[in-house]
Amino acid sequence: MSIKLFELLLQAAIYTVTISVVSILIGFAIAVIVSAMLLSRQRLLALQARIFISFFRGVPLLVQLLLIYNLLPAIGLNVPSIVAAIIGLSLCTAAYQAENLRGGFSSVPAGLVESAEMVGMTPVQIFRRIKAPIALRLTFPALVNEAILILKASSLVSVVGVIELTRMAQDLAGSTFLPLEIFASAGLIYLVINWIVALAGGLIERSLPGVPR
What we know:
Blueprint: H1 3-38, H2 43-58, H3 61-74, H4 81-106, H5 110-118, H6 123-153, H7 165-176, H8 179-207
């Protein structure tokens, strides 16, 4: 396989990483809100959060992407296909991240919170100094794993016309008749990207307060 073809795959890989990172960050922001709704004492909010999570965890991502891609024009929102792809990936990962965060916040020892209240800490201080650090430390490995899953799942956005790594590999394989070399190179690129994510996640996790080094 020529260097030119490999460069085209690398360019598509940058597109894949960009879509994935943006989706993961937006998804995390949504997940924080959904997890707060899940832990809310208001049953209606908790019910809405459960419905959201059940839908995006229960429906295949491919169907979600096609549904969003066709739904947006139907309601008058003519957005580029990449925007529809990011919306689909963001909502899907938000459902999984929200469950991870809920588990983390639920695991914060009640005794620590009660002790903080007894010494006069405000709810904001308790959240910032106790709940958030402990929950983040507990859920961080799962969040890194979710990031890797989204990177791989981003290959599905080609169904809505986004030319990411897998779609580029398909196009090049069809035009050069070198499917083995092309897809092996694409697989290697995915492997390297995910290895970097896992390595960076491990380094960040070890730097978190309270984690043995």
